[in-house]
Amino acid sequence: DVFSATKPGAICPQIRTSGPLHLGAEDCLYLNVYKPKDANNDTLLPVMFWIYGGGYVLGDGFEFGLYDAARLAATHNVVVVTHNYRLGALGFMALDELKGESPGNSTGNYGAQDQQLALQWTHDNIRNFGGDPGRVTIFGESAGGFSVMWHLVNEISKPLFHAAIMESGTNALPWFFQPYQDAKAYYEQRAAILGCPQTGEQRLECLRKLPANDLLLSFSQDYIDIRARNHPDDKMPADIPAWGSPIFPIMPNGPVIDGTPQGLLDVPINLVRAGKAAKVPLILGSNRDGGNAILASLVKIAVPGSEGKDTNKTLESIAAWILNNAAQREEAVNSIYDYAEFENSPLGDPETERVDMALRDCVFMCPNRRLAREWTANGLPAYLYSFSFKLGPLDKYFAAGDFHASELPFVFKTYLPEIALLGVPHPEKISDVLSCRWARFAYCHDPNGCEGANPPGCDKSDDEAPKWPSFMEGSNANGTFYSLKETLEAVALRPDNVHPDDEFPSDKRCDFWDRASTPFRNLRVYRPSSP
C-alpha cells in the first residue's frame, strides 16, 4: 500500500485526560524514520531506535512533537526510528486461550512484540534510509526503559540491536514484569465483569466483539471506583480517570512472564544473572526526583483520606503495599527513610520528598545499581548515571525537582528555547550534554566517544568534560555513576551518604531494596471476590 507520510500515523487506542477521552485506532502500528538530509547508502549512519513510555497505557511514537527526532538526527548525523505499539489490555492481555492461538504459546507480550516487529523492520530496511543495520542502539524511558530490558533478555530481539540505553528503567519488580498466573487471573476477572463467558473460545469471541474503547474504559473504571471509595470527597469527575488507566503499582498492564522465548522466560534480572542477556554495552540511570511521577497516583489509591498529602501514615501505607515482610516495613519507615534525615529538604517539602526518595530507590535507582553490577559481572560495559540538572522554578513546583521524564525534551532537542524565560538555566547545555552522550554511544558504544568515530554537534566544552567511566572502572569497589548536572563529574557510590546529598542512594538503602520482598500488586487485590 502507498500512503501519505507527511504526518504521523494514527496512535494506538488509549484513554487520555486532556482533549478527547478516547484516542487512537486499531490500525496503529506505524513507525517514523528521521534522517539527515544528506544520508545515503554509501556512508551508513548509526541508528537510534526509540521506545516510548507511558505506563503501557499511554503514549505514541510522536507524542505531540516531544519525540520529533528531526533535530536529534540532523545535529548528530544519526538515523532515528520511532514507532507505535499496542497499549493496555490490547497489548498485554494474558489468557490461556490466547496462548493456544500462538505458535510458541506466548501471551501477554503483544505490545513488546509490536516493538520487536518494528525493530525487525528496522534491521531489514534501514539501509534504504542511510542507516547501518549493524549499529542499532535501542533506547527508551519509563515503560520504554522496561521494554528495553525485555528486549535485552528476549532471544528473538537480541540479534537486532548492538547497544542499549535504559532511561528510568527497572528489571525485577513484579508490578512491571508480571507472573503469568497473576496476570491471567486479573484478565479472567475483567472478562467476567464485562459479561463474557468464564472460559474457552467463547470468551475470546466475546472480548473481540467489544469496541476497543469500551474495553479500555472498563479497565479504567477500576481506578475510578477505588479512588472514589478511598477519597469520597474528591471532586474528580466520576467518568474521567486521573491517569486514564491504572498506574504504578496497581498496573494490570505490562509484559507477562509466560515462560516462552517469544515472550518472557523469567524475571529479567534472573536471566541476566544466568548469562542469558544480550552481550551489548549498556547505559542506564534515572532522574534524581523520579519517584514523584508515581507518588500522586499511588497516594490517591493506597491511602484513604490522604488527599495526596504525604504523612508518616503515607509512607507506612506505601511500605505495607510494597513490602511483604512486616519487619522490612518497619525498617523502611523508622530507619532506612527516617524522617529526621529529610527535615532540610531543598525542595521545601520534607514529607513528600521522603516518600519520593523511597519510591525512586525502590523502582529505579537501586534496581539500576543491581543491574549494573550483574552486567559488569558478565564482562560487559555498563555506564550508570543520575540526571540532576537544575530546572529553575520547576525544581520547587509541587516539589517536582528533576522529575520523571524531565530529561526527554533535552535528549530529543524538542525543548522550547522560551523555557529559559521560566528560569530554567542554560537549556541548550542540558540538551547538548544529553543528546551528545547518547549519540556518541550510538556511534561507538562509549558515551565518551571514540577517536575517528564521533558524531558532529558536540561542542568543545563536552569534549573537555570529565570522562564517564564504566560502572566498575577505577578504584572504587562500590561502583561509580556519572552525575549529569551543571558540573559533570564521576561520583563514587558511597555506603553512608544521606539526604539531601543523595543524588544516588546510599549502599545502605540499595542493599535494603536488594533483599526486600516485593509482591505482585494490581487492582485485583481490591475486589471483594479476590483471594
From TrEMBL:
<keyword id="KW-0378">Hydrolase</keyword>
<dbReference type="InterPro" id="IPR029058">
    <property type="entry name" value="AB_hydrolase_fold"/>
</dbReference>
<dbReference type="InterPro" id="IPR002018">
    <property type="entry name" value="CarbesteraseB"/>
</dbReference>
<comment type="similarity">
    <text>Belongs to the type-B carboxylesterase/lipase family.</text>
</comment>
<dbReference type="GO" id="GO:0016787">
    <property type="term" value="F:hydrolase activity"/>
</dbReference>
<protein>
    <recommendedName>
        <fullName>Carboxylic ester hydrolase</fullName>
        <ecNumber>3.1.1.-</ecNumber>
    </recommendedName>
</protein>
<dbReference type="Pfam" id="PF00135">
    <property type="entry name" value="COesterase"/>
</dbReference>
<dbReference type="InterPro" id="IPR019819">
    <property type="entry name" value="Carboxylesterase_B_CS"/>
</dbReference>
<dbReference type="InterPro" id="IPR019826">
    <property type="entry name" value="Carboxylesterase_B_AS"/>
</dbReference>
<feature type="domain" description="Carboxylesterase type B">
    <location>
        <begin position="1"/>
        <end position="489"/>
    </location>
</feature>
<dbReference type="InterPro" id="IPR050309">
    <property type="entry name" value="Type-B_Carboxylest/Lipase"/>
</dbReference>
